[in-house]
Amino acid sequence: MNILYEKFMFLVFIVALLIVIYGLYDTWFVYNKAKDNSYLMYKPTAAQGVPETAPLTEDYVAWITIDDTNIDYPVMQGENNMQYLNINPYGEYSLSGSIFLDSRNSADFSDEYSILYGHHMEYGKMFGALDDFLGKEYLKNHSTGKLIVGRDGSQVYDLGIFACMKVNVYDKKALDPDSLENVMKLITEEASNINTSIDKSESILVLSTCIEPVSTNRLLVFCYVYE
Fold first, then answer.
1. Of 217, 221, 222, whose CA–CA distance to 169 is shortest?
2. Residue 12's pLDDT band (boundaries 50, 70, 90)?
3. What whole-number distance in Å separates Cα of residue 208 and Cα of residue 58?
4. Residue 34 has what pLDDT?
5. Where are the extended beta strands (E) located within the chain?
């Protein structure tokens, strides 16, 4: 009986060890995919678009850069807001997914209120870097960026980061492309961090990410869009 018990416990130990090893490997794999910077070789400039050889899928709509941060990514737009959750800009399966534009928004960013989504990855990858904007000094010192729109890079917008706040995902006002007036009121009343020295614009871009894997809270960083 003791021998059977020892064998059973040994088997349990082996199974538990394999689970731990798999968990460590999965974490390493996801992190390494998230920190893959190979797409930076295809980054467009203000004078020209992405190279013709760039393997970015036809759903590529823009490139966003927030100065002096890890946010420097191609922006995709799928037929719905689920498509690029686990698909990278090359069209391959990836747990880190892509930065993507709300499917209800215009691909040329002509809307008054445009919404970008990205996973909250560790080490500030993808939109994990948005956490830092909760700090007043950080937001003040990292208030500029650029949006290069279109595969040909024909339209370039400057960005002015001016506010950061947490909301519940079920708050439709914050994540509705048609609710700019309500969003501005929400920012004024509830934003935890606002930089009032940033010049205003008639168009706003918001960057949205989850705060925790199983949380309904979202972290939002708001940018004025300048032509």
1. 217
2. low
3. 23
4. 45
5. 60-66, 72-76, 99-101, 113-117, 144-149, 155-168, 193-194, 203-210, 217-226
Note the maximum CA span of the chain.
78
Q: Which residues contact 76 (CB under 8 A, 6 or more apart)?
A: 57, 59, 60, 61, 84, 87, 89, 98, 99, 100, 101
Q: What's the pTM value of the predicted model, to 2 decimals? A: 0.83
Q: Whose CA is closest to 95, among 183, 33, 185, 6?
A: 33
Please write the tens of the pLDDT for every residue from 123-132. Answer: 778 999 999 9
Helix, strand or coil, per DSSP, at residue 117: strand
What pLDDT, on the 0 to 100 scale, is given for residue 148? 96
- Asked if residues 167 and 217 have their Cβ atoms less than 8 Å apart, the reply is yes
DSSP letter (8 states) at residue 199: P
Name the residue with tokens 């490997």. 25
